[in-house]
């Protein structure tokens, strides 16, 4: 298929349809309304079903019900709505159901604003709802990558029987870019032929399906927790994705950023190169599992690390964990829907180069330098 | 030849339940199982258990089952039914689950006309958590969170769910039955069967509210509890079929209408069969 100019939200919806998703449950919230609007038109064309739920709480529980039958299901929302979905997402993770959730993040906390933000990183990557669970989290930086990752998200969800969160921001949802949907796309994971666990009516040909997260016996629940943990360990081992830029030559500052902010950093890198300042960029694509090893190895080649986010510093904590104090980790963030400009990022990098010790091996970690 | 005249329904698993002695949950479970058997839909049934006393119902019904989060069973049922419309989807919910925390889900499930069957068990108290006030606790009824009796000045009057849903326009089957005497149980089964039949036929949303007893948390023997239900619950929660898909819209008119009376707004000579009048009739003014 030729490239087509598409809005991010519509590309996300179309990607889901092409991945075989035929069910969407959601509730309107800005800035992602184009996703449910697209699905309400598109799904009936392919024999699918769109349901506008009465709330995000209900939507996430409809997702639970539909995913329990083994079908590919999608919801999308934005930050305050995702908070409301956390009930259902916790049950979905506990019951090991494959679902895909798109969060087009907006500024918070509370009602916040409607402009782009990355303030939901903690919520997305550290569990989000109650209990001991993780979502696999994918963070696109372009409309094309959003379309690709949404399709991968369905494969990953089916493979792990786990919720997969696609974490974008208002820019990903709203901007228009050329997108290509490849007809010869292959699943990114080997997919099960059947879903014997699904509740599709029981004729005695398999164990009775019970979609459940209640384990009153503590030993049973602990075994269940450990089974889930083994899955998250497998994700950590097998699913880490990241991209790096400018690492084919020496650099003084390592930028770490995800999503659209990473594009800003990429532009800043080019501007800096023209001024003779050497910077490289590591862009996590999976936020859980986080590319700890890659960040550490890249950081060790730099004199300092600069984490850039549209938040007050959330991924920063994972970057610090990755770097393990071997290099100073600095932070530059904007909040509230304000964006980081390439010029501002470049200024931060230049200030670090001016202040940092000249030889990389002379830097010892000082906690006080972390922010 | 010996003939089996009475047996456990195929739709019920042969395990002891955790319900208290004298509780009517067991009867209601059995009625559902008998109806699933009789309609021949057990192999395509999917039940949704609630949070509350029936939280473990997925261990008792011999078909595919879900355990929902508190109050969300109608949303879970919506998801399952929309994904696989051939499934016969039912929820089993108590009064705290359906009429309190799940009020939004049940109203919108009913209003969308989801073709699922809701079994609502109203025993006027929170059983599982130990006897707290429910949205259906009667005025003056003692519960652990209204130790001096439900004060309607503080808590309002108990919610009548069947009546509340009857105000919705979307066609639906709504009925209230009771499980406290054999005669009522027989009546209840016929109503329950009708509710499931509407789903099998793809006709409409259906909900059957069961008045039920909670001897443990009411502090009464099973027989006293049945008598208390008869004397106190039925007068407030009348039994019967409230809405059918064939019946008229029950939306009530305003008690004190605003604006001029409807009669005064009608043009002179107006009649309901206006379309049948000749075109030469006087124009509307």
List keywords for this structure.
heterodimer; A: 371 residues; alpha/beta; Rossmann fold; 2 domains; 7-stranded mixed beta sheet; 12 helices; 40% helix; globular; B: 285 residues; 10 helices; disordered C terminus
Structure description:
The complex is a heterodimer of chains A (371) and B (285). Helix content of chain A is 40%, strand content 18%. Chain A has 371 residues and is α/β, with parallel strands linked by helices. Chain A has helices at 8-18, 34-45, 56-67, 79-94, 121-125, 143-160, 170-174, 218-238, 260-274, 292-300, 315-323, 342-355; strands at residues 4-7, 23-26, 49-52, 73-77, 99-105, 136-138, 163-169, 176-179, 210-211, 242-245, 253-256, 279-284, 286-288, 304-309, 329-333. Chain B has 285 residues and is of the alpha/beta class. Chain B has one domain: Thiamin diphosphate (ThDP)-binding fold, Pyr/PP domains (Rossmann fold, 3-Layer(aba) Sandwich). In chain B, 33% of the residues lie in helices and 14% in strands. In chain B, strands 2-1-3-4-6-5-7 form a seven-stranded mixed sheet, sandwiched between helices. The A-B interface holds A 23, 25, 49, 51, 53-55, 57-59, 61-69, 71, 73, 87-88, 91, 199-204, 208-214 and B 42-46, 48, 55-56, 58, 62-69, 72, 75-84, 86-87, 104-105, 107-108, 112.
Number of helices of chain A: 12
| CATH architectural name of the largest domain in chain A | 3-Layer(aba) Sandwich
How are the strands of the biggest sheet of chain A laid out side by side? Answer: 3-2-4-5-7-6-13
Label the structural class of chain B: alpha/beta
Question: So, the CATH homologous superfamily of chain B?
Answer: Thiamin diphosphate (ThDP)-binding fold, Pyr/PP domains
Helix and strand element order of chain B: HEEHEHHEHHEHEHHEH
CATH architecture of chain B: 3-Layer(aba) Sandwich
Low-pLDDT segments, ≥5 res of chain A: 360-371
Q: Give the biggest sheet of chain B.
A: 7 strands, mixed
The helix fraction of chain A, in percent, is 25-40%
Specify the CATH class of chain B: Alpha Beta
CATH topology (level 3) name of the largest domain in chain A: Rossmann fold
Gyration radius over CA of chain A? 21 Å
């Amino acid at each position: 298929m030729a490239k087509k100019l598409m809005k991010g939200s519509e590309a996300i919806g179309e990607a889901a349809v092409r991945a075989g998703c035929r069910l969407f449950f959601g509730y309107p919230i800005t800035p992602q309304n184009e996703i449910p609007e697209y699905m309400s038109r598109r799904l009936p064309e392919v024999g699918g079903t769109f349901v506008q739920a009465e709330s995000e709480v209900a939507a996430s529980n409809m997702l639970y019900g539909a995913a329990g039958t083994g079908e590919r299901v999608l919801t999308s929302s934005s930050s305050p709505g995702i908070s409301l979905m956390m009930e259902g997402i916790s049950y979905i993770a506990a019951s090991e159901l494959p679902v895909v959730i798109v969060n087009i993040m907006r500024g918070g906390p509370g009602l916040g604003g409607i402009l782009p933000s990355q303030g939901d990183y903690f919520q997305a990557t550290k569990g989000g709802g109650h209990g001991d669970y993780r979502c696999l989290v994918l963070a696109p930086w372009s409309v094309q990558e959003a379309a690709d990752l949404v399709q991968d998200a369905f494969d990953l969800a089916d493979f792990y029987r786990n919720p997969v969160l696609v974490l974008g921001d208002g820019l990903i949802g709203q901007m228009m870019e050329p997108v290509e949907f490849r007809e010869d796309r292959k699943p990114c994971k080997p997919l099960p032929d059947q879903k014997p666990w699904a509740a599709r009516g029981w004729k005695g040909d398999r164990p009775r399906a019970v979609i459940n997260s209640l384990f009153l016996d503590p030993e049973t629940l602990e075994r269940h927790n450990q089974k889930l943990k083994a899955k998250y360990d497998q994700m950590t081992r097998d699913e880490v994705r990241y991209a790096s830029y400018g690492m084919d030559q020496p650099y003084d500052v390592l930028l770490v950023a995800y999503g659209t902010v990473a594009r800003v950093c990429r532009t800043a890198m080019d501007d800096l190169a023209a001024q003779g300042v050497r910077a490289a960029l590591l862009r996590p694509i999976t936020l859980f599992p986080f590319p700890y090893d890659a960040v550490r190895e890249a950081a060790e080649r730099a004199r300092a690390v600069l984490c850039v986010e549209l938040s007050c510093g959330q991924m920063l904590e994972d970057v610090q964990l990755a770097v393990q104090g071997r290099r100073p980790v600095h932070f530059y963030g904007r909040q509230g829907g304000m964006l980081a400009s390439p010029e501002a990022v470049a200024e931060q990098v230049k200030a670090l180069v001016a202040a940092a010790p000249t030889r990389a091996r002379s830097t010892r970690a000082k906690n006080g330098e972390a922010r | 030849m010996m003939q089996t005249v009475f047996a456990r329904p195929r739709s019920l698993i042969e395990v002891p339940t955790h319900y208290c002695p004298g509780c009517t949950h067991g009867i209601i479970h059995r009625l559902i199982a008998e109806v699933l058997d009789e309609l021949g839909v057990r192999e395509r049934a999917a039940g949704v258990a609630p949070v509350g006393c029936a939280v473990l119902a997925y261990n008792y019904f011999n078909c595919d089952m879900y355990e929902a989060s508190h109050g969300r069973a109608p949303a879970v049922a919506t998801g399952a039914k929309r994904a696989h419309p051939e499934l016969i989807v039912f929820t089993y919910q108590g009064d705290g689950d359906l009429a309190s925390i799940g009020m939004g889900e049940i109203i919108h499930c009913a209003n969308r006309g989801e073709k699922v069957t809701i079994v609502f068990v109203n025993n006027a108290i929170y059983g599982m958590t130990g006897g707290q006030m429910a949205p259906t606790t009667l005025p003056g009824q003692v519960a652990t969170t209204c130790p001096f009796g439900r004060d309607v000045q503080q808590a309002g009057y108990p919610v009548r769910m069947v009546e509340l849903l009857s105000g919705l326009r979307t066609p639906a089957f709504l009925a209230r039955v009771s499980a406290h005497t054999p005669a009522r149980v027989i009546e209840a089964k016929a109503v329950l069967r009708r509710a499931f039949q509407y789903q099998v036929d793809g006709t409409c949303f259906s909900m059957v509210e069961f008045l039920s007893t909670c001897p443990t948390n009411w502090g009464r023997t099973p027989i006293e509890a049945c008598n208390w239900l008869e004397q106190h619950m039925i007068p407030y929660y009348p039994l019967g079929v409230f809405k059918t898909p064939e019946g008229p819209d029950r939306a009530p008119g305003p008690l004190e209408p605003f604006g001029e009376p409807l009669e005064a707004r009608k043009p002179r000579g107006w009649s309901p069969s206006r379309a049948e009048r000749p075109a030469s009739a006087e124009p509307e003014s």
